[in-house]
Amino acid sequence: MKIDIVEICGKKTVTREDGRVINQILMENWDRTDQFQIDFRNLMVASVSFIDEAFGSLALCNTSSELKRKLIFQNMVPYDRKLLNDIIVLRLRQQTVASREACSLAPAGKNA
Amino acid sequence: MVLRYPNRIVVAHSNQLLSYSQQARDSQDAEVVFDLFKTTFVTPFGIVLLAGTISECLGQGKKIKYRPPRNRKAKKFLYGMGFYKFFRFPDEPHKLESPHVQLRRLDSINPLLTDQIIDVFNYAITMTEGLQGSLRLAINELMTNAFDHSGSEKGCYVCAQAYEKIIRLCVADFGVGLLARLGSKYDLKDSYSAIKLAVQEGITTRSQQAGGLGLWHIQRFIKVNEGKMCILSGDGKALWDFKGPKSRLRKQTMHLPFSGTIINLEINVDRESIYFLTGEEDQIF
Questions:
Q1: What percentage of chain B carries pLDDT values higher than 90?
Q2: Which of these, A61, A106, A111, B157, is most buried using a 10 Å CB contact count?
Q3: ipTM rounded to 2 decimals
Q4: Do B129 and A79 touch (CB under 8 A)?
Q5: Which CATH class is domain B103-277?
Q6: Considering the domain B1-90 in this protein, what is its CATH number?
């Protein structure tokens, strides 16, 4: 599944609310999609809030290898890629059995 | 009511200073005098505490009188840190030479201000971009907690200053305090327990969102830097001093409970080392 950040978000790539739009698409399609190709078209996001909300919460529910297998980040500027990695690493460290269980109980489209 | 401030408005005198703040806010007097005449030294902790207290009193409709320090250096420092500008007191332009973040009140995340704070940190230490990014995240989270989840509608106060050997950063809110924030979710016996819990990984006041990175990550950073972190909330005060091989946690109980939470950081200037995230080499994407 292709997710074009520029097409979906336009200039709304700053707040948590903006990030939630992408997170909802991912959550709603997570189980039935093999791979997400997330294209940033070299747009510089540089927003911790956006990236954490869009992708960070996935790291509370999935393993590093699951994330690596399912999420392909294309045309992402190095700054954003570093930010993404930092956030994912931090969120993966936070993952507990309870947080994974909460993910499976959460309705599609909601953050765990 | 006249509050005569001591010689040093610093975190070490927090018992007296927080009592003053609470007395000013609880007072039924129509007028409160903030007398800093004898003050010779103020830190960012003192500035945010004074600013928040004065703002609270003004919000209650009290009349405020301010007596500036006699000490020229202290007065200039307050000018330079934007204290006079903040309250539109008669100002004298004075630019501080070392990096600093002027007193600000925030009610939402301000990425430029977070960048300014990181710039002040960069003056003191050499950090990888990965660490800078994660500290940005942690500072944003601290501020989000303050204005979004503390119950305070008045936002949070921030100010930072680089000194020759140390950086001081203070973030404060005048909300309900950590015990009230965390008490509904966790079983806690007092403010000190709430403070200790708040610095643990993954502890958050949010029920529907991820969080709990801020204090935990900042504490990790301060530990590596052998700096100090002090959190004051309610009648609790916890001071982590990471200097030397044995870190110490000191507990103190305030005479008068303070409504709100103050986080005061002291970061050592260390230009010899390079600071990076553990596992930074493990890039997932």
A1: 53
A2: B157
A3: 0.73
A4: yes
A5: alpha beta
A6: 3.30.750.24
